[in-house]
# Entry
Amino acid sequence: MIRLYPGSSGACAGVPEIDAKSYLLVDFQSGEELAGLNPSLKVEPASITKLMTAYIIYQELGKVRSNSKTKC
# Structure
């Protein structure tokens, strides 16, 4: 399990070993790509649970982005 905490220094011990064909880790605040392997490779999600998790995450990210744009 990889845990990332907002506001952390971003310093890593290195790129994690992940058994996957493709992945991309992006810093939410800056948009900087932190790590990846074949990020443009198109792959299918392994289950409907993962699809629904991704859907919920994108819905919540949209709410956060909308709220952050309206704050002064």
Notes: The mean pLDDT is 76. Helices lie at 48-70.
